[in-house]
Amino acid sequence: MKKLLSIVASLGLVAFMLGGTVAMVSAVSADKVFVCKYVGTPGVNETLQGGGNPIDVSAQHDYVPGSYFTDSQGRSYVLAFDTGQVTPPVSDCPPPAGAPTTTCDSGSGGSVEFPGTIPPDWTLTINPGSHVYTSGFASISLPAGDYTYVWSFGGHTEGSSSFTIAVCPLPSPSPSPSPSPSPSPSASPSPSASPSPSPSASPSPSPTPAALAPKPSASPTPTPVALAPTPPETDTSPVSSERGTFPLMLVLLLGLASFSGASLVLGKRR
Q1: How far is the C-alpha of 200 from the C-alpha of 110, rounded, in Å?
Q2: What is the CATH number of the domain that holds 122?
Q3: At a CB cut-off of 8 Å and minimum separation 6, what does 105 contact?
Q4: pLDDT at 28 over 50
Q5: Which residue in 35, 23, 36, 37 sits closest to 82, CA to CA?
């Protein structure tokens, strides 16, 4: 029994805590919320409104974070409750549902895509062909051509516009790479002009061999030479030589004796 009472008391405490949390959330949700404001028509030309998105507005009873609502200014997205936190950045806002984008038809059909979030209860009608799409129309395959489309809700037109799916151009053959030009050789510096040689004195003309050769003098007329008489042949033998020398020595001795005698006589007289 005590255990059962303990369990009941615990459940009551949990219920009280949950009730307080719900009351706190209700109080916050009834206060303010951050919303992202858009202008234009979704699926046609919708853009984020300028002026400080997201903005802090008074919350209504049906404002739930993560949902869209429409007022007199256009569509809005509830980003978060304002609990005193820093204002979220604009990048937290979902992208707008702007104009569609297309891809070309390469033979098997092109496509049209609608960016952003389209209201889930809107209907898309594409002409020609009266193609009607109520869901899954983020990307639609279509052949090349010009089209119009209409967004409607409950039989009321919300917006309309047009788009074109073009034929893909044929791929052009890739040009063959042109050879890269070879670098032109750099101009070699022209050699400096060598000084012109000073003119050398022109050599005097060499005399001709005839001028260099001395002229032969006239040979003198030979004078007749008198022939000397032939001397008698002298006897060159040794005996003849001794005979000629002896008389000469005798003369010399006699002269010497005469001189000595004269000197002696003079000496006695003194």
Answers
A1: 95
A2: 2.60.40.10
A3: 143, 144, 165, 166, 167, 168
A4: no
A5: 35
Of the candidates 53, 69, 92, which is a domain's last residue? 92
Using the 3D structure, point to which of 58, 92, 126 is the last residue of a domain. 92
Instruction: Looking at the structure, tell me whether residues 86 and 28 fall in a common domain.
Output: yes
Residue type, 82: D
Q: Where are the beta strands (DSSP E) in the chain?
A: 32-39, 47-48, 55-58, 68-71, 74-81, 101-103, 110-113, 123-127, 131-133, 139-142, 145-153, 156-165
Nearest to 133 by CA among 115, 154, 152: 152
Residue 262 lies in a domain: no
Model confidence at 196: pLDDT above 60: no
Q: Which amino acid is at 17?
A: M
Domain match, 117 and 153 both: yes
pLDDT (0 to 100) of residue 12: 54
Place of tokens 């400080």: 52
Residue 261: CB atoms within 10 Å = 10
Show the domain range for 152.
Answer: 101-165
Domain check: are 66 and 49 in the same one?
Answer: yes
Which ranges of the chain does DSSP label H, i.e. alpha helix? 2-29, 209-212, 238-269
Residues near 13 by beta carbon (within 8 Å), at least 6 away in sequence: none
**pTM greater than the 0.85 cutoff:** no
Sequence-distant (≥ 6) Cβ neighbours of residue 48 within 8 angstroms: 36, 37, 38, 39, 90, 93, 96
Mean pLDDT is highest, among 9-23, 106-120, 227-241, 254-268, for: 106-120
What distance in Å separates the CA atoms of residue 59 and residue 34, rounded to the nearest whole number? 9
